[in-house]
Write a structure and sequence with these properties.
Two copies of one chain form a homodimer. The first copy, chain A, is of the alpha/beta class. Chain A has two domains: 127 residues, Aspartate Aminotransferase, domain 1; 240 residues, 3-Layer(aba) Sandwich (Aspartate Aminotransferase, domain 2). Chain A contains 13 helices and 14 strands. In chain A, the strands form four sheets. Chain A has a seven-stranded mixed beta sheet with strand order 2-10-9-8-5-3-4, with helices on both faces. In chain A, helix 2 crosses helix 9 and helix 10 packs parallel to helix 12. The longest helix of chain A has 21 residues. The two termini of chain A are 39 Å apart. The model of chain A has no long low-confidence stretch (mean pLDDT 97). The interface between A and B is large, with 49 and 49 residues.
């Protein structure tokens, strides 16, 4: 019997009340009861996203909501700037290209963040760009982007679309104050709900653009979702149990307070970084995000074998690398239900398996360093 | 306290083991355990769909899978025949038009079925049509179509695409034997799983067409789903708990046997029809389906008030009408977990509320007639 510890940056552990909500018998969704639940969920999401904009609930993975953002904002032949430095930013480009959009591709090496002044320059060079597609927390590298600064650079020049799928609900994100026109969020990350729902927050400026173009979309036609908001409901049958579970998870987040959730993640991220660096390991991200940490394996370690052993020995499930980082890095989440002792035990598991793999490691060094960060934050 | 009785043609009641599966803690999906579950689910769906074709699992409502079928098969400017006689058949046309497909619209009045010889004539007039879009059980009218005969008319001339969202798993449907090239199915109907998953069964001929065109799709690009089948997994994060629940529901269906499930539905449908006709009510469908029955309200009844009262008094949730039938009909499901006594109690509830609404009704007449059908079938 191995105790399971899900430490991946999505899916994340689902809290007990949300699991219980999932197992309630399905009731019909075209009812006053379900409409009340939808209204509560929309209110909760507005609080977490820090927005007064319309929120649309899609039954799909996060990728479906990314596609919805692309095809509803930029017509075939239209121009879009994609800030690309990781697997999920690449997805923005792949979707846009699939729909015949002219992509201005701004690449920086994986692990590096974008600079707002570069974005400003791109917009000067491409004043006809409809939108800038960015990423809050790039899950493939653990980079956290300065969306606030990028928002200032984009304001008044184009629409700002942000993939907040894994970042929102764990990293500070102020949709309205930072000028995010379309925010895309997934249920199965910091919102502690099983996968199957995705959300878009759409600004009035984005709606104006959406109304002005025709789109190759039916299931992802956002105008149908806006129309259904007046009830509130969804145009097509939503995943009823997932909406119920989300309502419970949002209650937990609001009870803690979104600012407190962000602060907790900041502390866990800091403890994790200090801990892995004390083990002599190197971070992937030059500007680390707060919902997860990506770390290079020491030279000579077989990444897949390491992660398999960690999972088999201690039930600790971490994510490996993707694309060019496959086999070279591991990724630890600190979003959702996780607390200080989850981070400590994960670090301890990593130390023990590194030792097993013959690495010259001082057992306890990473754990001790992380504990000191936790103690310091407790004092503040 | 009112006992809830969900008698709508989707969502349907979810069996206890499936509800319990939903509430198990979420585990990661890129694991051998989840792949084994996916393999089991694909095997179960093949049995229910009666096919050896590839089966693709989408995290979306059934409408998403309909869109996937349209955009992957018919290019912009290509021609498709849509057999249209209800709200869901209309959706085929709406999706096709949205994507710039030339639609040959074959309409018959709502409540009437299509004739295979008409389909054959349409194909003679339009030999360049890529596909014929049909519906197994038209949920808005309760018509069941003769897909076997239509399949013979279409064979070798075009691809046959069938919306089996609400019909498959309750009405006889032999995908391979009847020549269905793309079958679309939803989780939340006869498959007794909460909404949020949809399925496509794709024939080799359909794959050939899919490979030959480019498509305005990313999330719904079926080639990505086919590629992931080799693992088996899905290209984007699937709704993990829904897959677990589906596995349980499929186990129940396979334990009963798909032929036995069809026979049970045939009997429940027959008892329902005889029961409502014994109350003096009139059926909507000229060729009734076996997963549901649509019935006209008597003249002078306020449909919404009637359904609200039935739900409030006895917890019996029926569906009302859609489009031109709104307020004029009610719809009873007999798919999924429902048995003889569920049908009897629903008919009794309808009788009692009709009497309350001042209708000249002989209490027990409908129930007695339905009971006789049940007793007869038991003898056979």
């Amino acid at each position: 019997m191995v105790k399971q510890r899900l430490m991946t940056p999505g899916p994340t552990e689902v809290p007990e009340p949300s699991l219980q909500a999932l197992s309630r018998q399905v009731a019909h969704h075209r009812t006053p009861e379900f409409r009340r639940l939808m209204a509560e969920v929309l209110e909760g999401l507005k609080c977490v996203f820090q927005t007064a904009n319309d929120i649309l609930v899609l039954t799909s993975s996060g990728t479906g909501a990314m596609e919805a953002a692309v095809v509803n904002l930029v017509p075939r032949g239209g121009k879009a700037i994609v800030l690309e430095s990781g697997k999920f930013a690449e997805r923005w480009r792949e979707i846009a290209e699939r729909f015949g959009i002219q992509v201005v591709r701004h690449q920086v090496p994986w692990g590096q963040p974008f600079q707002a002044d570069e974005v400003a320059r791109l917009l000067e060079d491409h004043p006809d760009a409809v939108a800038v597609f960015a990423t809050l927390q790039e899950t493939s590298t653990g980079v956290g982007h300065d969306i606030q600064a990028i928002g200032r650079a984009v304001a008044g020049k184009a629409l700002l679309v942000v993939d907040g799928i894994s970042g929102v609900g764990v990293m500070e994100c102020r949709t309205d104050a930072w000028g995010i026109d379309v925010l895309v969020v997934g249920a199965q990350k910091a919102l502690m709900t099983p996968p199957g729902l995705a959300f878009l927050a759409v600004s009035p400026a984005a709606w104006k653009q959406i109304e002005s173009i025709s789109r190759p979309a039916f299931y992802f036609d956002l105008l149908a979702y806006r129309k259904a908001l007046s009830v509130p409901e969804t145009p097509y049958t939503p995943s009823i149990p997932l909406v119920k579970a989300l309502a419970e998870s949002l209650r937990l987040i609001r009870a803690e307070g979104i600012e407190a959730v962000w602060a907790r993640a900041r502390m866990l991220a800091s403890a994790t970084r200090v801990g892995v660096e004390a083990m002599g390991l190197r971070l992937v991200a030059q500007r680390p995000a707060e919902g997860m940490t990506a770390v290079y394996f020491p030279e000579g370690i077989d990444g897949k074998a390491f992660l398999d052993r960690l999972h088999q020995r201690f039930g600790v499930k971490l994510a490996g690398g993707q694309g060019p980082l496959k086999g070279r890095i591991f990724r630890i989440a600190h979003m959702g239900l996780l607390d200080e002792l989850d981070i400590i035990s994960t670090l301890a598991g990593i130390e023990l398996v590194l030792a097993e793999f013959g690495q010259p490691i001082t057992l306890g060094a990473g754990v001790a360093a992380a504990s000191r960060v936790i103690a310091e934050t407790g004092k503040a």
